[in-house]
């Protein structure tokens, strides 16, 4: 079970400073406080402070990051909210189940990522997420305000925390043995970079049209939630394959 | 089960027009559309339209009312949101249970009433409600934005509607027999006026300090949810008692 205080709310490139303030307020009403802002268009801003309305301590502690990876440093469970349908569907859960999933987390840190007001998350950003969170909404008008979406997720998190810990649906992992910990998101991201390079080198991946392949692989690995030991093992395999490719090219 | 389209969202004296627009948007994302505005400070207003952001059809259909009774005309189930603790506690349920309660409603119309941004609902307004809805929140900062509260309630209503009808916890009432219908709120309100007058006439009620007594009685009757036939019966009793009091005074 994760302390509400430890859950990160990550806003990717919010364009309206008022939404940042309203999101801070929504978080605080539900007991959350760790706000991460990835490349906000206008921040700090008087409108953000005005709309925070008493939650200015959350704003004051907010961290501004250059990119999503920076905001996810140290995080082991990433959930991304998204209203858009995708060509390749990501494992998708509703807010209640997302909160239960975070509540079941036995260690590490969790983040919920919210996309841009107009365009949401890019595919590349969504690929950093273990789950896509979809808020059920009116099919003819599903455009929730950013802060309203933050409010709903934080509300479900607070209810789940109140209900207490539930069984972790993923295999039990010893908290005592650091080698058995989930990999941090940045480690998985480095693995993906390594994987893509290796696949190109062994001429399995066509760099001209690489995307769908990597997305399918990321979806697979994200669903399993890799342990740190597993990431190291997989990267060892990649290095071995790269060595063979280099030898094959006469390197 | 009540159609989402039939559930009224009633905002009592909202002071910020932006909140009205944001509430309309929150409603529409969850499939609700019937907005009632009781004495809004500034409406219509450009800020309301701007924040509605595509939900302007909900705004266009919104009804502006002089007082809460007007907004509740025809309603048989009233729920009032309130963060404030009261000297006399009202039956209080969380949003999820409120949505289930409305979902279990077999006929008639339902309204969820939201109070002023700063001061909420008055005691007199809360006394028109069968239940008080309390959103569980951070005890140190429970100040949800008005539109955020509307979003949470509409979200729970949409989930409950999606889950389908549940058993009505109140006694079954024949929908065919109009005499067995729940009383409308305005009929109950007239009964309360009658009750208070009668209690004063029979010298049970001290007009100098009447409030706690009437509130206790209203709490009792609201909890039972009166049928129309029962209201008529009770008023008949009151009239009989008043006649006795008048005779006693030598009338």
TrEMBL record, chains A, B:
EC numbers, comma separated: 2.1.1.200
GO cellular component: cytosol
GO biological process, one term: tRNA nucleoside ribose methylation
Catalytic activity: uridine(32) in tRNA + S-adenosyl-L-methionine = 2'-O-methyluridine(32) in tRNA + S-adenosyl-L-homocysteine + H(+); cytidine(32) in tRNA + S-adenosyl-L-methionine = 2'-O-methylcytidine(32) in tRNA + S-adenosyl-L-homocysteine + H(+)
Record has Electron transport as a keyword: no
Main location: cytoplasm
Enzyme class: transferase
Location relative to the cell: Cytoplasm
Keyword match ATP-binding: no
Keywords annotated in UniProt: Cytoplasm, Methyltransferase, S-adenosyl-L-methionine, Transferase, tRNA processing
Domain tRNA/rRNA methyltransferase SpoU type: 7-155
Subunit structure of this chain's protein: Homodimer.
Similarity annotation: Belongs to the class IV-like SAM-binding methyltransferase superfamily. RNA methyltransferase TrmH family.
Function description: Catalyzes the formation of 2'O-methylated cytidine (Cm32) or 2'O-methylated uridine (Um32) at position 32 in tRNA.
Name the record gives this protein: tRNA (cytidine/uridine-2'-O-)-methyltransferase TrmJ
Organism in which the protein naturally occurs: Acidihalobacter yilgarnensis
Gene coding for it: trmJ
């Amino acid at each position: 079970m994760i302390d509400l205080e430890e859950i990160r709310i990550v806003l990717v490139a919010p364009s309206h400073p008022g939404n940042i303030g309203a999101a801070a307020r929504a978080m605080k009403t539900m007991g959350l406080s760790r706000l991460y802002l990835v490349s906000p268009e206008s921040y700090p801003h008087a409108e953000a402070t005005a709309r925070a309305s008493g939650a200015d301590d959350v704003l004051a502690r907010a961290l501004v990051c250059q990119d999503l990876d920076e905001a996810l440093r140290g995080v082991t469970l990433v959930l991304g909210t998204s209203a858009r349908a995708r060509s390749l569907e990501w494992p998708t859960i509703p807010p209640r189940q997302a909160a239960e999933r975070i509540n079941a987390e036995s260690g590490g840190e969790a983040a919920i990522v919210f996309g841009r007001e107009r365009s949401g998350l890019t595919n590349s950003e969504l690929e950093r997420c273990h789950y896509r969170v979809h808020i059920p909404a009116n099919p003819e008008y599903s455009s929730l305000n950013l802060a309203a979406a933050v409010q709903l997720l934080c509300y479900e998190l607070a209810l789940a925390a109140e209900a207490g810990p539930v069984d972790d649906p993923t295999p039990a992992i010893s908290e005592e043995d650091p080698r058995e910990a989930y990999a941090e998101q940045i480690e998985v991201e480095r693995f993906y970079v390594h994987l893509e390079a290796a696949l190109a080198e062994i001429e399995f991946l066509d760099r001209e049209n690489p995307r769908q392949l990597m997305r399918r692989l990321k979806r697979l690995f994200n669903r399993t939630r890799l342990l740190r030991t597993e990431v190291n093992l997989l990267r060892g395999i990649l290095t071995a394959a790269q060595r063979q490719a280099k030898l094959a090219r006469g390197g």
